[in-house]
Amino acid sequence: MIAKKSSRTKPTGNGSPDEKELDDGRDGTKKKGILLSLTSGFLAAMASLVAKLALDSHDISLVFRCFLMLLMVLVNSIMWTTYSKALDACESSVVASVLNTISNFTLTAIMGVVFFKEGYVLSLRWPSGMALILIGLCLILHENRQDQRNTKKRC
Question: pTM value?
């Protein structure tokens, strides 16, 4: 059986061509993880949009409402699959969670204004709350990276 090189293997520090391939693989995996995390947040926002259309619209037929609910379940399923792949591809679960949350919240707000004319997004309270959430998520991400550096120093 032939062993496959893992892109998550630690470099040896000798600058060999194999090490450069491993570094490129990690960069590609990080980019893939970021893209998957942002995509899962987008899909979560789309699922909430479809759910709101299905449940808040009073002038649609029952058949179309059921179709929208099934569509919401489908989009949610795809979102969870994408998020699971993002968790695997990112350097830590915190990165995937932060990026997913940021894209989900931001896109949900934009879609609320565009599709439902929800004006509360334009008030001062919503952007202030969103800014505090983003600051908190960034602090969590920063602390997680510091913990990873400290762990590497101990090894």
Answer: 0.71
**Rounded to 5 degrees, what angle do the CA atoms 127, 83, 65 make?**
75
d(Cα 91, Cα 27) in Å, to the nearest integer? 10
Under DSSP, the state recorded for 3 is P
Q: 68-83 pLDDT, tens per residue?
A: 999 999 999 999 999 9
Question: Where do the domains of the chain lie?
Answer: 30-154
Hey, what amino acid is at 117? Answer: K
Q: List the beta strands (DSSP E) in 60-102.
A: none
Q: What sign for the dihedral angle of Cα 86, 88, 91, 97? A: positive
Task: Give, for 150, the enclosing helix (H) or strand (E).
Answer: helix 125-154
